[in-house]
């Protein structure tokens, strides 16, 4: 029986080493911490010393950014085994990855592009990604969560809506979904569609975690908005609004604040988590009422 | 996406001269150059940034703009082969050594070698060091036949330039001043506890450590170190080795005989 994803339905933050001392000085109002798996794949040193200390106090979400689940070739078995070792060592409450690809062979071997790259949604890609998710869940012995991407382009080959694609993947593989509401907002703006329509058709019953983060605003060559999923600023107001509407429908869900670039001092990041927690508390009251 | 279409996308990421893949589009323009450019920029800028984080002293020496240009060329020529970015840039020092615009800075590749070694030491396996008391219990006449295991984080960078001094001055560890005593330094990089430490080894110290790494006895290592430098001082090197927490185990040679 695979281990199900089971983070507490509270607000958490993406852990940054610069906040280690701040987080440890006293009990923080955090439901969980999330780490990027690849930063903890060295043999030893400060990353493991810090994670070991944090793990004793907080629930943990391991979030992979390098498995390349949307890759049309085979999964990187060695990397999957590294993820397995990490999960066995820290026993996280949840493991998640992205509906995206980041590695591809250039004829000399795999190149790692260090970005979450998009794929068209077709029956062919659906079968491939589903097979990869099966492989991951079998190897880890646990349910994984799959995150909806932020995208900047479309594919002429796509024949399936992203929400249908995710619903089908969850149904076929039994994986949970990680709903990144900033990604929903960014993608909708970038493709001239409605974030509310997207959320209305999203399989919310499969969501086990929510991500919130900041984005940058640019424009394409026609002057149309081009939002960048930059994770270097506070959560934008329209994203907070979509979040409140979503948890009003689902009830409280584990909610992560992501802030990966231009990392602020701890009180700033903590305030974002506190704001998310306040909305979660209201969602609890709404459900109770 | 067929595997072929993904190949087109991948190839266009690192080659700005290549056309945008034909199956990529957007609701505003059929060929969305600016949008595809976001992916190109994410890939190159994030990898350049990974190198800047790993090689801050190199960046400080050459300046941000020069560093970004040099790093961009490295990224396109030698992109990462693994999702473990902590290892990305192991080949950057050799690239710098062959990078003509930086050729005047003869010491730059060695500064990069030191920085690459520091990251490896940071992520190396943890092991509890022995202290000097552990060897003080050994009868002095048996010392020469001992073998020691060194801490797994240790790396040595031998340089014809004062690389430890240059690194320290460009890392905020020492004031930036002219170096009067311009001579080669052998850098010892290690992380016996949580902090990465670096020092210049005394004469013969690098040869001594290399010999210990090759599982020579202390006596054999001292002989090799003396061959490298007649100023080699065994007692001072041993004290330094244990004092810095660089020895994790002592074993007696199976062929141990009391030294005469």
Strand adjacency order, main sheet of chain B: 3-4-5
In one word, what is the shape of chain A? globular
Indicate the CATH class of chain A. Answer: Alpha Beta
- How many β-strand stretches of chain B? 6
Low-confidence blocks of residues of chain A? none
What does this structure look like?
Chain A is α/β, with parallel strands linked by helices. Chain A has one domain (11-288): Divalent-metal-dependent TIM barrel enzymes (TIM Barrel, Alpha-Beta Barrel), CATH 3.20.20. Helix content of chain A is 40%, strand content 21%. An eight-stranded parallel barrel of chain A has the order 1-2-3-4-7-9-10-13, surrounded by four helices. A two-stranded antiparallel sheet of chain A has the order 5-6. In chain A, strand 5 (101-105) and strand 6 (110-117) form a beta hairpin. Chain A is globular. In chain A, 51% of the residues are buried. Chain B is mainly alpha-helical and 260 residues long. The longest helix of chain B has 22 residues, at 33-54. The relative contact order of chain B is 0.11. Classes of the chains: A alpha/beta (289), B mainly alpha (260). The interface between A and B is large, with 56 and 49 residues. Strand 8 of chain A pairs antiparallel with strand 1 of chain B.
Provide tags for this entry:
heterodimer, A: 289 residues, alpha/beta, TIM Barrel, B: 260 residues, mainly alpha, 3-stranded antiparallel beta sheet, 11 helices, 10% strand
Topology, element by element:
The complex is a heterodimer of chains A (289) and B (260).
Chain A: E1 11-14, H1 20-25, E2 32-36, H2 46-55, E3 59-63, H3 77-90, E4 94-98, E5 101-105, E6 110-117, H4 123-140, E7 144-147, E8 154-155, H5 162-173, E9 176-180, H6 181-191, H7 195-201, E10 207-213, E11 216-219, E12 225-228, H8 237-250, E13 255-258, H9 266-288
Parallel strand pairs in A: 1-2, 1-13, 2-3, 3-4, 4-7, 7-9, 9-10, 10-13
Antiparallel strand pairs in A: 5-6, 11-12
Chain B: H1 3-13, E1 24-25, H2 33-54, H3 56-62, H4 64-77, H5 92-97, H6 108-123, H7 132-136, E2 146-150, E3 155-158, H8 163-169, E4 186-190, E5 197-200, H9 205-213, H10 218-228, H11 234-243, E6 247-252
Antiparallel strand pairs in B: 2-6, 3-4, 4-5
């Amino acid at each position: 029986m695979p281990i199900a994803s089971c983070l507490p339905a509270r607000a958490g933050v993406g852990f940054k080493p610069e906040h280690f001392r701040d987080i440890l000085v006293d009990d923080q109002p955090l439901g969980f911490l999330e780490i990027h798996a690849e930063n903890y794949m060295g043999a030893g040193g400060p990353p493991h010393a810090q994670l070991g200390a944090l793990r004793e106090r907080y629930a943990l979400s391991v979030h992979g950014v390098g498995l390349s689940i949307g890759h049309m070739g085979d999964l990187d078995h060695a990397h999957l085994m590294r993820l397995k070792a990490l999960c066995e060592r820290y026993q996280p409450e949840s493991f998640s990855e992205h509906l995206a690809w980041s590695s591809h062979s250039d004829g000399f071997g795999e190149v790692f592009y260090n970005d979450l790259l998009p794929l068209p949604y077709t029956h062919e890609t659906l079968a491939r990604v589903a097979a990869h998710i099966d492989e991951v869940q079998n190897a880890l012995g646990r349910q994984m969560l799959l995150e909806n991407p932020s995208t900047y382009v479309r594919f002429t080959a796509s024949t399936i809506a992203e929400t249908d694609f995710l619903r089908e993947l969850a149904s076929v593989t039994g994986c949970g979904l990680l709903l990144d509401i900033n990604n929903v907002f960014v993608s909708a703006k970038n493709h001239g569609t409605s974030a509310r329509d997207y959320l209305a058709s999203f399989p919310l019953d499969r969501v086990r975690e929510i991500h919130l983060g900041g984005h940058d605003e640019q424009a394409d060559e026609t002057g149309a908005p081009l939002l960048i999923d930059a994770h270097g600023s506070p959560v934008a107001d329209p994203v907070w609004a979509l979040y409140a509407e979503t948890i009003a429908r689902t009830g409280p869900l584990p909610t992560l604040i992501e802030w990966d670039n231009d990392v602020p001092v701890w009180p700033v990041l903590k305030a974002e988590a506190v704001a998310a927690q306040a909305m979660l508390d209201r969602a609890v009251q709404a459900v109770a009422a | 996406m067929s595997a072929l279409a993904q190949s087109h996308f991948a190839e266009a990421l690192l080659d700005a001269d290549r056309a945008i893949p034909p199956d990529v589009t957007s609701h505003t323009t059929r060929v969305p150059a600016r949008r595809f450019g976001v992916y190109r920029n994410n890939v190159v800028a994030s990898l350049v940034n990974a190198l800047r984080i790993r090689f801050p002293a190199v960046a400080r020496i050459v300046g941000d703009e020069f560093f970004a240009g040099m790093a961009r060329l490295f990224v396109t020529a030698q992109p990462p082969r693994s999702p473990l970015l902590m290892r990305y840039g192991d080949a950057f020092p050799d690239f710098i050594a062959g990078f003509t615009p930086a050729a005047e800075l003869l010491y730059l590749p060695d500064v990069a070698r030191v920085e690459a070694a520091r990251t490896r030491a940071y992520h190396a396996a943890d092991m509890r060091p022995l202290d000097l008391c552990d060897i003080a219990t050994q009868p002095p006449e048996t010392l020469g036949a001992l073998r020691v295991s060194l801490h797994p984080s240790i790396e040595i960078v031998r340089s014809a330039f004062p690389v430890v001094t240059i690194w320290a001055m460009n890392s905020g560890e020492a004031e930036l001043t002219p170096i009067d005593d311009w001579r080669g330094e052998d850098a010892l990089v290690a992380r016996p506890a949580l902090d990465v430490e670096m020092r210049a080894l005394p004469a013969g110290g690098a040869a001594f450590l290399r010999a210990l790494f090759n599982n020579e006895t202390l006596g054999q290592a001292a002989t090799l170190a003396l061959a490298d430098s007649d100023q080699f001082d065994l007692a001072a090197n041993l004290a330094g080795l244990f004092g810095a927490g660089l020895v994790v185990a002592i074993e007696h040679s199976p062929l141990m005989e009391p030294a005469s």
